Amino acid sequence: MARRKDRKAGKGGVITEAGADTVVDELELEYEYEYEPTEADGDMFGGTPAKKAEHFWPSFNRLIGLLRTERLAMVWVTLLVVVSVALTVIAPKVLGNATDVIVNGVTGARQANGQPGPGPGIDFTELGRLLMIVLALYIAASLLQWWQGYILNALVMRVVYRLRAEIEDKLNRLPLSYFDTRQRGDLMSRVTNDVDNIQTALQQAFSQLIQSVLMVLGIGVMIVHRVVAARAHRAHQHPALRHHRRGDRHAFAEAVQTAVELHRRPQRAHRGVVLGSRPGARLRPRRGHARAVRRAQRQAVEVDGRRAVRLRDDYAGDELRLLPLLRADRRRRRVAGDREPAEHWRCDGVHPVLARVLPAHRQIAGMANMLQSGVASAERTFEFLDSDEQTPEHETEHLPERANGRVELDGVDFSYDPETELIRDLSLSVEPGHTVAIVGPTGAGKTTLVNLIMRFYELNGGTIRLDGIDTTELSRSELRGQVGMVLQDAWLFSGTIRENIRYGRLEASDEEVVAAAKATMVDRFVRQLPDGYDTVIEADGGNVSAGERQLLTIARAFIANPSLLILDEATSSVDTRTELLVQHAMAALRSDRTSFVIAHRLSTIRDAHTILVMEKGRIVEQDDHKTLLAKKGAYYDLYMTQFRGAAAESGQEEPGQRSGREEQPEGVAAS
């Protein structure tokens, strides 16, 4: 655990911790674990996690479990994928048959040895029929893929919707301490980016992975079937091919012998001339020798071709090593004048089938990476869903529609860290309609006290009662429905002024909205706007001043008509003129309501019925402003050190200076 150490000088030279201007900010100062992101957190602003899932298979099984409610749809998707893959694998085979029709027709149309005339040529009727079948297969496969994609996207959307709803419910059940110890970016990444990764994995990885695996299996079955059929045909109908390698060796030896003989022949002739066996003879080329040279060249080319076939045969697969044999068999048939189409040796349909193997293999690798990312995101999301929740509610009592507002704290003990006690044996009683100002140094427990009243945290000991009812016997929503809050950092949403005020009570009529605006001084500046109450406010109120934003939040709290009111430094960031308007609005808001005020301006809590001075979680002094100043205790010291400069800035003279008596000015201390 570590606290923020950056500090800045406040008004009057007082050193305050930076950022301690609101309930939430002060809470972070009082207790905050420094959260250090790790690789597992990934990119908090988008993208996939940078680290693999630590527990892959448990997270994978739980991710698959999200699809159990969609069993029927998953069965349909699987069947459609199987059928579409089958059609996609069968189509190249039919296309190969069409290619055979073309090849056999072209070769058959030529004049063959021993035949009186050419063959019939290409059978265009059969070719057209096969092409139409191929077209129908591809169209059917495309339609089935679109159908399975539509069903898959629909079921994934339903699954992700339920997951997001579960996350939203989980957010509402988490204790405030969960958010104290985690960065907002990490939490947003878990509930947005990680869920998006899960959706992508379910939509793409699973369907495409299944499709690619089935595609590879189907192609593998087809290739094995072709290899087995081709080998069986070769073994029974072409036994000569079994001696292919031996024939290569004989052909190579014969080619070498021929080349040697061709070299020896001119050497013998030349030697005869030189040695005188044939004096005066001239070396003349012989026709027989030229023919022998050309024959040797053809033989060498044929041997080189066979050696290339053997090299490819050694390094290629079964299907590819059959291709040269099948082509050689066709050439043999063509030379021999055999025009029979050789049904068992069709191989042209292999090429489009093999062309799909590598893309499918790459797709499997890519989808595996996407699946890994999705499982890592699922693990982080499930870790969030498994986080400890706040104490379950035991609703046994109910409050009237509007409570009286009597608040009692009896022996309250609380600490964020079990080893560090913050509030010890705190007791307090506040009558209905009274205003209680809470002052003290930073970290004294002021914000913690109001958070305990709203039951953001559970007590370690003691009880808090509202109108005599223990708050633990009320539902949290019922308790918080009795409380209105006005913070220094006013929050407005993008919408009209009327909608922002009505947000305090959605069923309020337009007349009630205007009445609340008039009571809280909002109507005065709204009437000056061109569109009045229909003026659209930008997100976070960017087109209105800070004082106007605070007035709007006061009007929102006014229309909610709460029995308890919590004001957190509601006038610390406005000018003097606007502060007067806010004072009147606050006075109207506090009328007949029990109010707890945390502030550091004198005018904010001048008329408070009770001022609590807290130090280290204890109430050290408790009384009204004049009485506390007269005691010259902790409140007096706090005032003298922190608020004399504030009084001088506001232009207020101390009563003691006007009357010459030793009397301190009216005012209230601040946090």
From TrEMBL:
Q: Could you tell me one molecular function GO term of this UniProt entry?
A: ABC-type oligopeptide transporter activity
Q: Which residues form the signal peptide?
A: none
Keyword Cytoplasm applies: no
Q: What is its main location?
A: membrane
Q: Which UniProt keywords apply?
A: ATP-binding, Membrane, Nucleotide-binding, Transmembrane, Transmembrane helix, Transport
- Residue ranges occupied by any ABC transmembrane type-1 domain in the UniProt entry: 75-223
Sorted alphabetically, the Gene Ontology cellular component annotations on this record are: plasma membrane
- Which intervals carry biased composition (Basic and acidic residues)? 655-664
Localization of this protein:
Cell membrane
Listed name of the protein: Fatty acid ABC transporter ATP-binding/permease protein
Q: Which residues form the ABC transporter domain?
A: 407-641
The record's annotation in SMART domains points to:
AAA (SM00382)
User: Locations of Basic residues compositional bias?
Assistant: 281-297
Q: Which InterPro entries does this entry report, sorted A to Z? A: AAA+_ATPase (IPR003593), ABC1_TM_dom (IPR011527), ABC1_TM_sf (IPR036640), ABC_transporter-like_ATP-bd (IPR003439), ABC_transporter-like_CS (IPR017871), P-loop_NTPase (IPR027417), Type_1_exporter (IPR039421)
| Family to which this protein belongs | Belongs to the ABC transporter superfamily. Lipid exporter (TC 3.A.1.106) family.
Q: Where is this region: Disordered?
A: 278-297, 647-671
